[in-house]
Amino acid sequence: MAWRSCSVLLRLTGDEGLRSSVRGGRWPQSFQQRCGFRKAARKPESKKVEEELGPAHSESSEAAAQRRTPAPHWDHQAPPSPPRAFGRLVRPLVFTIGFTGCSFGSAAIWQYESLKSRVQSYFDELRADWLEKVRPQKRGDIRKEINQWWNSLSEGQRTVTGIIAANAIVFCCWRVPSLQRFMIRYFTANPASRTLCSPMILSAFSHFSFFHMAANMYVLWSFSTSAVSMLGREQFMAVYLSAGVISTFVSYVCKMATGRFGPSLGASGAIMTVLAAVCTKIPEAKLAIIFLPMFTFTAGNALKAIVAMDTAGLVLGWRFFDHAAHLGGAMFGIWYVLFGHELIWKNREPFVKLWHDFRTRRGPGGGEGGGGGDRGGAI
């Protein structure tokens, strides 16, 4: 049943056009009309202010009537010339390697601390259960109902709740007119932009369209139970965050190679990693399209179809989706299940031991917690 509910595979590749490569550094006219990214009338004192992605198309009267937020102004920046184009990717490459390493290192420490505090949490839960029995029950206690709902969720669903909340907050920030310029600079990834590194991770939490965000978050929610039960919450978070940066870097490389510069945003690259990892680990699982539950197919075949479609889109130059980011996420997910787990996660014990020794020297009573830390590193 869980697999049926999570089979929005065909939606996943529909990045709502926002992870698209735009020819000539221009937004498509339909995108400008939907998003309200319009160029304001030029004033004599602001002749040097240009939009970063090129001049906007003329808007229709209907689109002008529906305008709700002022258009952000951009400092004009031409796409880099071929000799120095790939030189701009050195910093993003270093950032990708460093961020991925920090993600897995933090996940290993997180698991160590979780195992260390598990015994204390067990006694706290016993005390809470005893107090719950002694304390008189309140009718309509909202806090109790929320706790019951939270406890009814799987570990995977509880893990991705924070990710979904972060995406919702960023989506609301897109609605604030005064934040438009800041959001476009830091929450959209474009190799021709002045800001290259921070948008590689921030854009993975960014959606301008509600449908775009809802479709991506539904897929993430549906696959979360299987992915977290397979990897564990700490390793899952490391893989997800690393996938967001890696898929964006692949998008950067392809845009530099093809010369099709344009902004990209959305969580599809990271979600493709989760989807590919689950489909690679459990290829015989049955999936179905949400609106056509009578048609089922295996997870392995679904992954092959998605990779084939994104490959065709990349080769043929389709510009509606950021196919390079999708492929980058899918390839990372497949690689991690087949090789990365053995190379990275199972070799984390020396790092955890260093952290354990550091904690033992610093904190009192560290010797007791040390045994738990060693066990966490060996799992």
UniProtKB/TrEMBL annotation:
Family: Belongs to the peptidase S54 family.
UniProt GO cellular component terms: mitochondrial inner membrane
Catalytic activity entry: Cleaves type-1 transmembrane domains using a catalytic dyad composed of serine and histidine that are contributed by different transmembrane domains
Location of the Peptidase S54 rhomboid domain: 200-340
An MF annotation (GO) of this entry: serine-type endopeptidase activity
Keyword Transmembrane assigned: yes
Biological process according to GO: signal peptide processing
Membrane topology designation: Multi-pass membrane protein
Protein name as it appears in the record: rhomboid protease
Membrane spanning stretches: 93-112, 159-176, 196-215, 235-253, 289-308, 320-338
InterPro entries: Peptidase_S54_rhomboid_dom, Rhomboid-like_sf, Rhomboid_protease_S54
Top-level lineage group: Eukaryota
Keywords annotated in UniProt: Hydrolase, Membrane, Mitochondrion, Mitochondrion inner membrane, Transit peptide, Transmembrane, Transmembrane helix
Compartments (UniProt record): Mitochondrion inner membrane
